[in-house]
Amino acid sequence: MNMNTLKKVITSFTFILFCTSSFAFTLVLDAGHGGQDAGAIGSFSKEKNINLTYVLALGEKIAANHKDVKIIYTRTTDVFIPLNERAQIANKANADLFMSIHTNSAKNKTANGTETFTLGHARSKENMELAMLENSVILLEEDYQKTYQGFDPNSTDSYIMFQFMQDQYMEQSIKFADLIQQNFSKNTPLTDRGVRQAGFLVLRATTMPSVLVELGFISNREEEKYLNRKENQDKMVDAIYEAFVNYKRVLEKKNGGQPIEHGKNTTIHTTPTPQQTTTSTPTQKPTNTSTVVTESNILFKVQFLVSKKKYKEGNAIFKGVTNIDSYVENGFYKYTTGSTSDIDAINQLKNDVAKKFPDAFVIAYKNGKRCNIHDAIKEVSDKK
């Protein structure tokens, strides 16, 4: 292999490891877009360049202050990396956290503010449009239909699957996303648009807590100026850095104050907030799903509550939800309702339960053991 060929191979893989023998935590930083994919274009700058500037600055700050953290970049130069390869880089590294940095854009030139996304089903037209925009990059890839199993980034039908894609890392992802938004609010004057969910392909295939950060709107002239000023970049990088430090500290605290054993993601559990536990909704009928009989060895359930306490069915904390089951994980009781192999039925149940518990999501069991929700959906769908 000659030197030019070697350089091309290295560039196409585009990840850098800061190698020591004492790494306890692996963080993958993904600068969205790159190469022929410019991303959103503002009046004087391009998204791909803004994303890379922030990612490199963040990685440098973390590496300088946390020698136990391995930083892996999906790209460090202006190159194009397919969405599935970005996830593969994180998975092959057995990463503990994946963070994709982007810059927002909207038809409404006054739209402004920061927001952080986790994987899930877009609950608004705005979130759906953003996911479609970000996912449309796959159209630049060869054989994208084969690579992404027929996924069409411009068809709303392709996004139905994201209603089920909230797996065991959802709680950690939301916690980290919330820390990022809190620090943006504290460190910058930008509007806090909150933590949201949408069907981003770059998050779909990752096997660790993952978030996608939208720094601000390049389509808003004033916000574009803000994002390109060095002093503001420093403030925003500091905000994300502080969120990472707090997130890692919580993990270590859960681990008894010891460094995190690489590849052993300690779960950050959350309990319902007072606002969540007082939401009133129409009556839902969770028992319907338990009557569905099929020959499948896959069962879907809706998980809706996590608590340190064990509650009996009928307790007011369940807000009328019945057909309750629970399992214990890391000292926490996780409560579920429903049990069916019918995808449509469990999705309807999830929507009903989410009116009372907004963070409700679908989990799957195969032969009585918890399994990956993505694999379960595919297996059930293939049998139809």
Give an overview of the whole structure:
It is a single chain. With 384 residues, this protein is of the alpha/beta class. The protein has two domains: 13-254, Zn-dependent exopeptidases (Aminopeptidase); 274-383, Alpha-Beta Plaits (2-Layer Sandwich), CATH 3.30.70.1070. The protein has twelve helices and eleven strands. It has helices at 3-13, 47-65, 83-92, 125-135, 144-147, 170-187, 201-204, 221-228, 230-254, 274-277, 343-354, 373-383, and strands at 25-31, 69-73, 97-104, 114-119, 192-198, 210-217, 298-307, 324-329, 332-340, 361-366, 369-371. It has a six-stranded mixed β-sheet, sandwiched between helices. A five-stranded antiparallel β-sheet has the order 8-9-7-10-11. The longest helix is centred in the middle third of the chain and has 25 residues, at 230-254.
Short description:
The chain has 384 residues and is of the alpha/beta class. The protein has helices spanning 3-13, 47-65, 83-92, 125-135, 144-147, 170-187, 201-204, 221-228, 230-254, 274-277, 343-354, 373-383, and strands spanning 25-31, 69-73, 97-104, 114-119, 192-198, 210-217, 298-307, 324-329, 332-340, 361-366, 369-371. Helix 2 packs across helix 9.
| Global outline | globular
Give the fraction of residues assigned to helices: 25-40%
CATH topology of the largest domain: Aminopeptidase
The end-to-end distance, rounded to whole angstroms, is 48 Å
Please give the domain count.
2
Q: What is the CATH class designation of the largest domain?
A: Alpha Beta
Main β-sheet description: 6 strands, mixed
Strand and helix order: HEHEHEEHHHEHEHHHEEEHEEH
Radius of gyration: 21 Å
Unreliable runs: 5-21, 158-166, 261-295
DSSP helix count?
Answer: 12
**Fraction in beta strands:** 15-25%
Please, what is the CATH homologous superfamily of the largest domain?
Zn-dependent exopeptidases
The total strand number stands at 11
Strand order of the largest sheet: 2-1-3-6-4-5
